[in-house]
Amino acid sequence: MTSADKGNSVDFIREIVERDIREGKNGGRVHTRFPPEPNGYLHIGHAKAICIDFGIAEEYGGLYNLRFDDTNPVKEDIEYVESIMRDIKWLGFDWKDRLFYASDYFDIMYNYAEELIEKGVAYVCDLSAEEIREYRGTLTEPGRNSPWRNRSVEENLDLFRRMKAGEFSDGARTLRAKIDMASPNMNMRDPAIYRILRRNHHRTGDRWCIYPMYDYAHCLEDSIEEITHSCCSIEFEDHRPLYDWFLNRLDIFHPQQIEFARLNLTFTIMSKRKLAILVEKGLVSGWDDPRMPTLSGLRRRGYTPEAIRNFTDRIGIAKRDSTVDMALLEYCIRDDLNRRAPRFMAVLDPLKVTIENYPSGKCEELEFINNPEDASAGSRIVQFSRELYIERDDFQEEPHRKFRRLAPGREIRLRYAFLITCVDVVKDEDGNVTELICTYDSETRGGNAPDGRKVKSTIHWVSAEYAVMAEVRLYDRLFTVENPLASDSFIETINDESLKVLNRCRIEPSAADLDIGEPVQFERMGYFCKDPDSTEEKLIFNRTISLRDTWKKILKNQE
Length: 559
Prior knowledge:
It contains 13 helices and 27 strands. It has helices at 12-23, 44-59, 78-91, 106-118, 129-136, 153-165, 214-224, 240-250, 272-280, 295-301, 305-315, 326-340, 550-558; strands spanning 31-34, 63-68, 99-101, 122-125, 174-177, 192-196, 210-212, 229-233, 256-260, 263-265, 322-324, 343-344, 346-347, 350-355, 364-369, 379-384, 387-391, 411-414, 419-427, 433-440, 458-459, 462-463, 468-475, 499-507, 519-522, 526-530, 540-545. The longest helix has 16 residues, at 44-59. The model has no long low-confidence stretch (mean pLDDT 94).
């Protein structure tokens, strides 16, 4: 069954896969892989690659591997390995028993390197890293051959084996491919295959003091695992001739590499190296800071895997890079949470309200709908009492012309409760409003007046007696400009208002029983989730996204 038969859009990658299946290429097999380097946490851009790599294999009944490209022990850590596996499973994919590492193949790669030497297409070079750059030339000028390019096969084999044995210092020698120093493709100008590097590897320990370079190892890993469709982002298009060169010289299984446009998102950065700078400088609390575009950060903020997968489906697969509006990602999470998140009431900036004609000590139980978008979500009981809290912004002592909420002498509706009227205002010695004295109409239970009179506004509230104290963290975009990397320093574009912590919030008591990460809508305030740092003594909620949805308006205008 084709992608079109299943009702899915057919992009250029699926067209290639379906053609290969029809023609019986690779025996009709579809086998993909996701090959992350364990040198940082995955971000939203990786989610697109994962959904392509794993999603296409699932769609066509194929297999997919998770394989770590762990060829650089300088930057790699088991923490990153574990976080990557956790994020992929959270996103909804299970590689089952197909977990591999580049380090699984170090012996094979070494043997292939000796084979290249024996074929006269690889040599040991004594140039330093700086000299190699100098000899490499420029985009407009050809490079120069290394003085060591014409060593004999016997000498190269001897030197390479001595490199492996640890006879030379780090950086003293490299093994390079002998291709073409005048090639217009800089990747083909005798690239390094192996370098000397005495670093402990998180899997192989100190067994190796030479490590394969990424471009050499990557295509071999695909070949060894007999990957049929090697999907990667567009920046690797210029590397494909080098991959082909290695595979052809070794005459081994040749996967088909297909490049697609990487995901660029406004108001964020998609570089693990630069995200690491934010972490290292303490500009964020860690890789899982809810302001980060990492999957760990998005999960902690309350994003759902369904919303992210829907987002990757919506942006599609293109051949050339473009930038996606952050508002589309925000639309996807709002759309998902609107259907799944139960509703609760929370007051983030509390102002006390005393209903003077409500009996002291009395408590009424009111029934609230959990989610108007999901009838199966049922209802809950909320306590109503004499003393309440409302949002401070829901009151103005001298209301402007368009203000419709509570004001002296004005009647409004408390959500699912009663109509109340403000009859007095209590202030402190500095003139700040500290309490509102109101009256209620006992005949308006449920918020409707039996005489049919209308009120202009409905506001949310919590019972002062039964509400639970909580800390609420309001997150905004981490950067103030659409393209932080276009600035002289992306750090200077960080939004100083990207995190606001509110410590006096009051929430419905039932919201305290939510699981960590479980989404909830605080009515009129946005979507939130309980943070992992929450304890029995201190509840912490992160705002996932506000209720405002500009992208929905954009889509409607386009239609």
